[in-house]
Amino acid sequence: RSWVEPAEPFRVIGNVYYVGTRGLGMYLIATPEGLIVLDGGLPQNADQVLASIGALGFDPADIKILLNSHAHLDHSGGLAKLKAVSNGDLVASEGDLSALEGGFYLGSEDDHSLDTVPVKVDRLIADGGMVSLGGTTLTARITPGHTRGCTSWWMTAEEAGKPYEVLFFCSATVAANRLAPDPQYEGIVEDYRHTFEITRDWKPDVFLANHPEFAGLWQARARQEAGDSLAFVNPEAFPAYIARMKADFEQKLAEQTAAA
C-alpha cells in the first residue's frame, strides 16, 4: 500500500529533491539547464511523480535526463510515461537493457505478474560513466546482484557552502531472486559478492535509497522538519545498511542451497 501512498515532495539537500511515494523513492536533481529524474516507480506512480515535480515549482517538460536504478516494475514502471511527457533521454546499464525494453523481470519472464511497461533506453552507461547537466555530474557504479545491471549513482550536493557526497544506492536485497540451485541469472551469486566487495569502504555523507526505509528517509525527514538542516547527513548509515544486506544474502544463499 505504501508504494502508491502519496507523499509531500521536499528538498533533501542541495539540488536534490524527493518526489516519490511513502514507500518508493524517486528523486529529482534540479539544474539551471534542466531536470534529472531518478526512477519512475510503478506505472501508476508516474502521475504522482509529475505532480510532485510541479508542486516543487518545476516544469516536468524540463526533464532532460531519466535515470534508473534497476529494471524491476516498482522502479522502472513509470519511466515510459515520464519519458513521453518530457521527451527526456533514458540512461541505463547494459545489464538491465533487455528487461527495461522488454518489460519483464529477468529470469522470471514467465511470471507475468512481474511484467511492467517497456521503455526505450537512449544511452547505455558503464561502470564509472558520467551523466552531466547544468553543472551537476552523476557517476554510475554498477552494483549487480539484485539485478544484472543494478546501477548506483554518486553526486556532490552543496549545502550552506559545503559539499556533501550523495549516494543513490540501487539495492542489495535478495527479495524475489533465486540464488540456488536455479539462479535468477547466470553469475548472480558472484555479482552479489562483487557488490559487497566494492562497497565495503563506501561511506557517503548522504545515503538515499529507492525504498525509503532502507535509508531511514522518513526519520531523517522528521528531523529536518524539526529544524535540522543536515538531517540527511549520516556517514555511518550506508556501511550499516550494506553490512546487513551482506549478512542477509549469505543467510538466504545457505537457506536456498539447503532447501535444494
Main traits of this protein?
globular, 260 residues, alpha/beta, five-stranded mixed sheet
Mean pLDDT equals 98
Question: What is the beta-strand fraction?
Answer: 15-25%
Total of DSSP H or I helical runs spanning 4+ residues: 7
What is the N-to-C succession of helices and strands?
EEEEHEHHEHEEEEEHEHH
Distance between termini?
A: 33 Å
Shape: globular
- What integer value in Å does the Rg equal? 17 Å
Please explain how this structure is put together.
This protein has 260 residues and is α/β, with parallel strands linked by helices. The protein has helices at residues 46-55, 73-76, 79-86, 97-102, 188-198, 217-225, 237-259; strands at residues 10-13, 16-18, 27-31, 34-38, 63-67, 89-93, 123-125, 130-133, 136-142, 151-159, 162-169, 206-209. The strands form two sheets. The protein has a seven-stranded mixed sheet, with helices on one face. The chain has a five-stranded mixed sheet with strand order 8-9-10-11-12, with no helix packed on it. Strand 11 (162-169), helix 5 (188-198) and strand 12 form a beta-alpha-beta unit. Helix 5 (188-198) packs antiparallel against helix 7 (237-259). It is globular.
Entry summary:
This protein has about 260 residues and is of the alpha/beta class. The protein has helices at about 45-55, 75, 80-85, 95-100, 190-200, 215-225, 235-260, and strands at about 10-15, 15-20, 25-30, 35-40, 65, 90-95, 125, 130-135, 135-140, 150-160, 160-170, 205-210. The chain has a 7-stranded mixed sheet with strand order 1-2-3-4-5-6-7, with helices on one face. The protein has a 5-stranded mixed sheet with strand order 8-9-10-11-12, with no helix packed on it.
